[in-house]
Structures are given as C-alpha cells and as structure tokens.
Amino acid sequence: MIPQNLLQLTTQKCTTGCPILDRLLRGGIPCDSITEIVAESGSGKTQICLQLSLHAQLPVSHGLTASSLYLHTEFPFPFCRLHQLSLSFRSSNAHHLPTNENPCDRIFVQSSEFDNTLVDLKRRSSLFFKISSKLKALAKRFSLAVLVTNQVVDLVGPNEEINGLRVGNLGCLYTSGRRVCPALGLAWANCVNSRLFLSMNEEVICEEEGKLNGESSDFMCKQTRRKLYVVFAPYLAESSCEFVITREGLFGVER
After folding, report:
1. How far is Cα 4 from Cα 185, in angstroms, rounded to an integer?
2. Distance between CA atoms of 40 and 180, rounded to whole angstroms?
3. SS3 for 88?
4. Helix (H, G, I), strand (E, B) or coil at 4
5. Quick count: other Cβ atoms within 10 Å of Cβ 201?
6. 124 backbone dihedrals φ, ψ, rounded to 5°
7. CA nearest 195: which of 186, 203, 204, 207?
8. What digits encode the pLDDT tens for the residues 174-194?
9. Do 32 and 139 form a contact (C-beta atoms < 8 A)?
C-alpha cells in the first residue's frame, strides 16, 4: 500500500441540487466513500436520496454523468414524489439534459424486504457489515457516491453520548424535542466515512384567541424548522444549515 496525503486528495462530488447545501458540504456528496444520513421518519432522508438520484445525471461540472441505483427497504417506494421532483429537475436543468429523455429512466429501483421475525432480524444484522464492506470496495473501485440512511431511537440514560462515548462533532442529537441516537449503534458508525444528521422541531410563531363552538379558545400557529448537521466527515468541520422541503425539492435556507 502506498501512503497518501489525504489532505491533498481531490474527490469528485455529486451536487445536492442546492447551492447552499453544496457550500456546506464543500461541493456535495463525495465519491469513493460512504455518506450516511441519520434522521427520524419524515425529516427529509428520502427527499435527499431522490434528489441526488436525479442530479447524478448532470454533467461532471455539476453531477456525475451517471445513472443511479436506489436500494429501497421501506414500502411503498415514493414513485409519485420521484416523478414530481423529476419535473422540477428537468425544467431547471433543461440545458444539461437530452430533450426527450425522462430523468426517471436513469434511476433503477431495487426493493428488498425483511420480515420482523427473529430469524430475519439476525440475518439482517449479520448482513449490515458485509454490505458496508462491499459498498466501500465498490465505491473505491468505481468512484461511486454511496449514500445510506439510518433511523434514530430515543436515547435514555444519564450520559449525553452513546455509552458515554462522543461520536463526531455533536455530543448528542436532538429532534422533535427528544434526545436520540442512530438506530444501528456504535459499531455501524465505523462502517461509514461521513455522517449527516437531520433534525426537525416545531416552534410556535404566533398565538391567537378565538371562539370554537361558542367557547373561547387559544390557537397556536406552528412551523417546522429543519436543520442539517455535519456529525463527522474527514473533509468537513462542524457546521449546520437550515433547510426546507417544497414541491420542487429540498433546499437550504440562509438565516
């Protein structure tokens, strides 16, 4: 093995489709490694995955000039949302795409499902480390951008870190007012090269008094604020950015 100066390596990256998020990630999702997104359901994990699958098709100056393989384990697959995003993608990148080509045709979806039986849970657990090893080898060999997702579980205990250990830039993760940690545990953290965390929290923006069925009532207007954090990455410092999810996609917000 020949020693390499990791600080001088230049790695190709795939744009997220948002200049603000790309700036946070210094260009987007890197090739040759595994990037993980950790978040609770409804935070935007699937939105980012779909958006990246589309933007990988852009020329090398923006994307990877490549097709995408989407391994899906939660049913049903959001085909309608993918089609909706593809319309926005085509209209904003028409000068980079063939005229009569459907961007969805270059995204290949492979579904896999496990039952929640004891046998399947054991089999699934043993496969995780084999899959991560294979993905790393493929990413390095073919210069692939690999993005995986991970759910969260509530973290209960006196320690702020997982088992008393701090993993990455953030001592602990908070979302929806709860302290959480990645569902796949500490061993899995060693299987990925970079980890991003998506949080969402509701905040009250105004309170109003009114009447409901003739009785006085208080009404609260709430909005969901979402944020992306860099938990750890070999090329990124601790940083974060707010983002929103719209009909057109997922976009960073400058405050």
Report:
1. 30
2. 9
3. helix
4. coil
5. 14
6. -65, -40
7. 186
8. 999 999 999 888 888 999 999
9. yes
